[in-house]
Amino acid sequence: MKIATRHVDSATILDVTGNIDMANSPEMRKALLSEFRQKGVTRVILNLSGCQYIDSSGVASLVEGLKASREAGSRFVLFGLNASSKEVLKISRLLKLFEIYDDEEQAIAS
Amino acid sequence: MNPIAVKYLSGMDTSSNLSRDFMLKLELRSHPTLLCALRGALEPLMETLGFPDEQNRAIIRAVDEAVSNIMRHSYEGRPDQPIEVRCNRLERHVNGEVEKGVEILLFDCGPAVDTTKIQARSLDEVRPGGLGLHIIRSSMDTVEYMRADGLNQLRLVKYVRPAKDGCGSTEEKPK
Question: Which residues of chain A make contact with B136, given a CB cutoff of 8 A?
């Protein structure tokens, strides 16, 4: 998994490439917590269009990111989820909990 | 020598209306980076067995979570322990119809699992962790654990179902 960071307007966009599974979910968690807790970013947009698979540990890292965003009074937005990623959030009853958009344009405009 | 192969167990379900054909055996070490390789090996096999995309993804998800649990809990993160994954094609006769499916057997040499302590947590609480078992159970038709000859064996079964209309929809149903 690779995470690239870029900035658009006031948002920080994290482009994820690869899988978020047991092997690298700690890295995902660390990246999200760093944005919300240390950098104090007001809006983090996670681009998952290059992410093929998310397992339960990956879901846990996203939930931690969401909690950190709420604690910081920031927003945490997702876009580009494939069918597999949506399914794992749905099974975990978390699909409605996250702010999810189809593409980057919508996510930035939100 | 693979200690799992030495102690290999036969499948548990020996119903007369069930036939089983061996398809694939994978031996891997308990290193999390191998999960990706495991998913990559299983996906085309499930397609070959006739599973539509959504069911294929469900099976991959269940196996991935089960093997992750072995790595995390049974082997406590030790990355060099043996895990065996065996896939059998199933056919069963139900009311004159033939149902096709897959049986996936996972073996590990970790300590016996205390089944009284295995419980999927409530999903009403929003918190990280504890979702793996829920995902496994919701993805498969049968999930069975047994311990014999010093091995943990998890048996996962899923039968092919016709693809639903709008297959791939992940919209949550209204509560």
Answer: none
